[in-house]
Write a structure and sequence with these properties.
Distance between the termini: 45 Å
Helix content: 25-40%
Number of domains: 5
Keywords: ATP-binding, DNA replication, DNA-binding, Helicase, Hydrolase, Isomerase, Metal-binding, Nucleotide-binding, Primosome, Zinc
Number of helices: 20
Strand order of the largest sheet: 12-13-11-14-17-10-18
CATH architecture of the largest domain: 3-Layer(aba) Sandwich
CATH superfamily of the largest domain: P-loop containing nucleotide triphosphate hydrolases
Mean pLDDT: 90
Protein name: Replication restart protein PriA
Bound molecules: adenosine-5'-triphosphate, zinc ion
Radius of gyration: 28 Å
Shape: globular
Pfam families: DEAD (PF00270), Helicase_C (PF00271), PriA_3primeBD (PF17764), PriA_C (PF18074), Zn_ribbon_PriA (PF18319)
CATH class of the largest domain: Alpha Beta
Family: Belongs to the helicase family. PriA subfamily.
InterPro entries: DEAD/DEAH_box_helicase_dom (IPR011545), Helicase_ATP-bd (IPR014001), Helicase_C-like (IPR001650), P-loop_NTPase (IPR027417), PriA (IPR005259), PriA_3primeBD (IPR041222), PriA_3primeBD_sf (IPR042115), PriA_C (IPR041236)
Amino acid sequence: MIEEPTHFAANRLVAVLTAEPLNRFLDYKAPEGGVFMGAFVEVPLGPRKVIGVVWGAGEGKFDASKIRTIRSVLDVTPMRLEMRDFLERVGRYTLTPMNAMLRLATRAPGLANPPSMQRVFALGEGAPDRITDARQRVIDTLTANDGMRFTSKELSDIAGVTPSVIKGLAKQGVVIELETPRDVAYPNLNPDLPPKDLTDDQKTAAAALCAFVATQTYQTTLLKGVTGSGKTEVYLEAVAECLKQGRQALVLIPEIALTVEFIDRIEKRFGHKPAEWHSGVTMTERRRCWRMVGAGKAQVVVGARSALFLPYQNLGLVVVDEEHDTSYKQEEGVFYSARDMAVLRASGCKASVILASATPSLETWVNGKTGKYNRVDLSRRFGAAVMPDMDTIDLREQEMGSNSWISPALAGEVTQGLERGEQSLLFLNRRGYAPITVCRACGEQIGCDFCDARMVEHRFHGHLMCHQCGDTKPMPTQCPSCNEEGKLAAVGPGVERLADEAKERFPDARISVLSSDMSMSARALKQRITEIASGATDIIVGTQLVAKGHNFPLLTCVGVIDADLGLQGGDLRAAERTFQLMRQVAGRAGRAKKKGRAYLQTHQPDHPVIKAIVGGDEEGFWRAEAIARKQAGVPPFGRMAGIIFTGSDAQAVFNVAQMMAQNADALRALGIEIYGPAPAPIARVRGKHRVRMLMKAAKDVPLQGALARWRDQARIPNNVRVSIDIDPQSFY
Ligand SMILES: Nc1ncnc2c1ncn2[C@@H]1O[C@H](COP(=O)(O)OP(=O)(O)OP(=O)(O)O)[C@@H](O)[C@H]1O
Ligand SMILES: [Zn+2]
């Protein structure tokens, strides 16, 4: 379908969508020379000028004499019909006003600025008068990245020199300084470079994925492959196919900390680095990425969930790696699941989606079963590696010392590993030193001043931290409640405390802690991971950061310190999440030649979920989960929505919730079940009180439309905020 560009002549009325909280389109007159549908424009609004997008013909409902003229048309590619459609569909699905949708789609700094220049350095012809180590590193960096240009900051960072070294070399013509446009195209990726030698299984899987991509029709495929089977290698072939078709590809990954490693893999496969889009990218680079994606000059984007809202010109493939990962759900501002919206995005532009996972979400598994999604399996590990043996360690039968979390049985396994020169991983999904700090005199637990949550001690950083709002305070020496000196005690383990225990028990072992809050830069983290992979560590102590996508070839023994942790609490996905996390962590073991073992420390070895994890009957586990969810009428067999009321005034928040519950007859008439309102499990976050309601409906109930009418009819005072979370993933 070729889109006919609609053009509005000068002075014609056009409807402009802005990101301002107005919830309606504004009429403007087209400027001199006219304007295209979808154009990004700058319009006057009161005394200000704001950015907007031409969304259609003006409605003429406003006083014609007051209508102002578009000030300027921005020098960026107009928003395509397909994108406008996508934003409208996401808006309807998530009950988000269009202005907020537009904000998501325009999150590039300096959109209104004219193209600008920057100073960069490249290799020159001159020879240095004398050579120093620092100078050599600059020359090496430029030689190694043949033809690439760097800003002074980039070059000094990569070469590890001060900017004055670069200046000195510039004076002698060894490097030359150039002015170039800031927003330059990304280098061309070459899909024809040879891939790794794929195994027969991998070849079959890759061929199936490539065939789907080649149809240039909408397709969603579940790529289910056991940990270490080479899913990444396989879906990179689908990316190659997409590039051969001349279309753009997006790869979503769940953890920013992993991007550096991933970008390297793309560079090895396609010859150059792709565009990157996530919160760790500089403003300049974000702007470049947004513009170049829009101009069709970025072929592959690697990014976090919001990369879905970049202005692709010809999107042919979206890969969602570790599709079950909870980080794909955004739970503030616009509540959306990037995985689900990726499917929506692709369906609007005849593109393929690949959902890759060793442990897919039940939703995706069911869609694979019913044939709504295609399914491609990789059931064997790459090379000589086989899946690890798994077993439980029954903590009820182990002699556990006080403040000790490594059982004698697990310690024995680690010791044997050490003797054989193999690595072990001790896994605990809890950041910090200890989850609770209690006063032994009065029993007070130190809490956050702004949330109904305990503060977590982080000894590495030397403070207490709230994991809800991020607030920190120094570790007090006296109890804030009874003022007793020296009575505060840590209760329970976090990953830092576990590391202390490991150091005590294995004094000769080299121990390395990997947790997402160790404030390491992405490069430093990659460096650490490379060191671990090469054998510089005997014992890794880590949180779920290590569970995701790392290859540690020497790692043979995985010990899960508390397998029961995720099973507590009544979350409908508790079983699924525990299953996924445990299988994923265990999957770090034995990825090379030596067979791995994984041990789950548990108090309930007979729990069906623990048995399923250890037994490895994955299909059986999903079948059982599916039956349970079907009986309960919950997703994916029923629909759910969470309603969250927040505000500083607790009474006002409750009143609104109560009032809206009373005025919900229209919802009940449709068969929607309403639970609550009740105080949220965490009843206060960042000083805001929180009340929740939960809606449940059968699959065929038009939930969104009903909720939209219900919300729009309610008179909600300014001091209370009502958020609607369709398909909620968390219930805190
Ligand atoms: N055909 C191949 N040739 C060479 N190396 C391969 C091949 N297939 C996989 N590998 C290597 O095996 C390791 C695991 O592959 P990959 O990371 O793609 O697996 P995965 O299925 O994505 O793993 P996980 O889900 O556990 O993160 C990687 O180091 C990868 O480079
Ligand atoms: Zn807090």
